[in-house]
Amino acid sequence: MPTVEEVEEALANVIDPELGLDFVELGLIYGVEIQGGDVHVTFTLTTPGCPIGPQVTEQIEEFVGELPDVDAVESTMTFTPPWSPDRMSEDAKFALGF
């Protein structure tokens, strides 16, 4: 069974093309749930109108699905609560000048 840490490490490969930073550092991953070999990732985008949602879903499924012992990957996009820069890591805030 994969760990949350392993899933988050895989999710670090999902990059926001406009900002050039990964979804974990940007605070766009809201949750990871694991039941056996099934992984569910809840994520958001920086804005509801952002057009990369389908691309992000595909990348989440691809990168997490490559982990050993992962049988299925499901992702859900949410905008509740809305994303804000407060959710970013300190490294991401520094890189973006916050």
From TrEMBL:
<protein>
    <submittedName>
        <fullName>Fe-S protein maturation auxiliary factor SufT</fullName>
    </submittedName>
</protein>
<dbReference type="Pfam" id="PF01883">
    <property type="entry name" value="FeS_assembly_P"/>
</dbReference>
<dbReference type="InterPro" id="IPR052339">
    <property type="entry name" value="Fe-S_Maturation_MIP18"/>
</dbReference>
<dbReference type="InterPro" id="IPR002744">
    <property type="entry name" value="MIP18-like"/>
</dbReference>
<feature type="domain" description="MIP18 family-like">
    <location>
        <begin position="5"/>
        <end position="74"/>
    </location>
</feature>
<dbReference type="InterPro" id="IPR034904">
    <property type="entry name" value="FSCA_dom_sf"/>
</dbReference>
